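Researcher: Next sequence.
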Amino acid sequence: MQRAALFRGGDAQMAAGDLGELLVPYMPTIRVPKSGDRVYKTECAFSYDSPDSEGGLYVCMNTFLGFGREHIERHYRKTGQCVYLHLKRHVIEKVPGASGGALPKRRNAKLFLDLETNSDLNSEDFEYEDEAKLVIFPDHYEISLPNIEELPALVTIACDALLSAKSPYRKQESDSWEEELQASKHAKTLVQLDNGVRIPPSGWKCSKCDLRENLWLNLTDGSVLCGKWFFDGSGGNGHAMEHYKETGYPLAVKLGTITPDGADVYSFDEEEPVLDPHIAKHLAHFGIDMLQMQVTENGLRDNDIKPRVSEWEVIQEAGVKLKPMYGPGYTGIKNLGNSCYLNAVMQAIFSIPEFQRAYVGNLPRIFDYSPLDPTQDFNTQMAKLGHGLLSGQYSKPPMKSELIEQVMKEEHKPQRNGISPRMFKAFISKGHPEFSSNRQQDAQEFFLHLINLVERNPVGSENPSDVFRFLVEERTQCCQSRKVRYTERVDYIMQLPVAMEAATNKDELIAYELKRREAEAARRPPPELVRAKIPFSACLQAFSEPSNVEDFWSSALQAKSAGVKTSRFASFPEYLVVQIKKFTFGLDWIPKKLDVSIDMPDFLDISHLRARGLQPGEEELPDIAPPIVIPDDPKDRMTNHFMESLDIDESSVMQLAEMGFPLEACRKAVYYTGNLGAEVAFNWIIAHMEEPDFAEPLVVSAFGEVASSGAAALGAVGLDNQPPEEMVAIIISMGFQRNLAIQALKATNNNLERALEWIFSHPDLEEESEPALDTMDMENNANANILADTGSEGPRIKDGPGRYELFGFISHMGTSTMSGHYVCHLKKEGRWVIYNDLRVCASERPPKDLGYIYFYHRIPS
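Model: Next structure:
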């Protein structure tokens, strides 16, 4: 069937009496949404089309998946589902009335679609009108709704249930305790009194009782009053609520929570925390500029810091007129509420050609072979996001001013700029206790989480995450014997420490700190910020210096000793990701950020950090495992798993032999389970009975080889990355669930001692279900422990020269990873571009010295 024929509009007119008969063959495929069903009526599974789009959205009446015009045919061909509910939102120009005012022109008086409205439209001139109709494929019969009298009861019920179903994103997954805030019904029409009230940056107190805590600013008249029990549970005398009852002024913002990315707003009328989309305008009425609000160390916000040094101002390039950018590769991403960390990382990821080719280049194949529920497929959602960012379909320049008046006389077609990554975020964060919440997160942790998912969901012959992977050579030296050990591990990020001691403006920093403390004691605004200036060379030097190894056990001395470790690059990646370790913990265990300026280079050469391996004259540490001591108490056994002797426990061997098992098999079972007893060895026997060498003698040639062989037998990782069954059996025999044993071993690279300690450090996981454990397992191999499916040839790497050029960086504003805002800068077509959520502009002053994560690409030889 030709596409034009498939989408001819309403050419199949049906008599009213024929509707029921027409639907009879399809009745078995029409379902009524039940509790727990996800109804995707606001977004296409393969694109960012919605009922707002020109072609509207088609929702399958069986799977409740939504599809745009470009993708509905694919679903019909794949599933054979014929009945869809077509949803379309129109934007209509109001017709002027006799008195000159606008009169509504409506076919339907009700807005029944759960969609966001276009804030760019003037509500006095335009209005929304929602339309729904049933469409039957392949002949594209259309049945306008409502048509209750002529439709079968099941169809009517199914349509009503689908239209009234809540968005699947209204609440995050069950392991997230935060529900998404909704915009207040008062925000758009809030009246603010022109009474000259201006709110100072600090020194607030309740106007009725002089309390200085839990204070709320009424957004209508500017009254500052204390709260009581609502919102954050803080104490107070309830004067803010009393004021609402007296005046009816509905919205208040909590002082001390205002930042450039939002504030805590409460609606007395709606009796719940809400979003205020116009909060910046409402605060500006009282002299508060959100862009200059910043958290101080004592928890107060102030806007007294001068723009030229404010982190928020510099990173967002505020105060500079930035030219908006449109077209392919210049598409913004909507902030869903503290999701800027995701936006910044995904903009950087899809600026890399390898990711573009893997997902957008393979888009037709990925979509054609996607599962029946593409919303739950990683590669489909990555391809969808990549296409949304790179196609230019959602980043079109506004119409020329001379055409606006002419266009406005017809039906208004709102400009769709930017994409909303709700479906992507819901899937990629599923099961993760942090990313599935609405709290702010660390962009570096999300980057590793994403790489982990890319590794687990290969697309094509090459994995795009290979471009980040490199090998780290770790040289560990016993300070007493001077002997060394060389090991290698996989990593994806170069973490650079901040060498604060190398600051070039120490005198200014000392003077600033004294003034800041004086201002804090006197409750005055802080002095002009002085930021530590750190040479990049000092950070690189700190990275290359040896570090102490805690609890180092020297195999040369067979005792604990002092040890130092040095890291070098065994390979250089195609793309080098550098993280500046700005975040640390204060004495109160609250994460804090080092506010520093580092002169990051545009061109970076780290060739001198290439690993050299064992050098002439160096002597290797013996390959001997630490001794194991097994206490009687099983829990102590887990935390003190050191082998005291490698002798085989003959009493356990005889107990097993008396059960009828071959003697040599019993000896191997006792040996490979570390002499933990006959019961544990019995589990090993059951797991290995079918092996061809089950009854072959145990071959032990030397002490060093014994330790090595035992470690290999216990720690070998299969191609499926499953822990060895004998190690799982050991943990199970101690009373723990199999799922927990597997998760602990995977999280510690099959190190039995560390796995046992890991279980004790995660007591809350003992009661969790298998799916939750499988999902959380993805995070336990983050960074150095992310392992590729490497087979026998080792990890896939793209080694080459160690010379790089900077092409992007992610910056963080705020005092810790728990708060603040992320912005991404990328170099495209020879110039820098700033990606600040939906806003994409040409950068005039890229703040390369204030970045958090930097992206470099290799310079060809």
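Model: The first strand starts at residue 57 and ends at 60. The CA atoms of residues 330 and 840 lie 6 Å apart.
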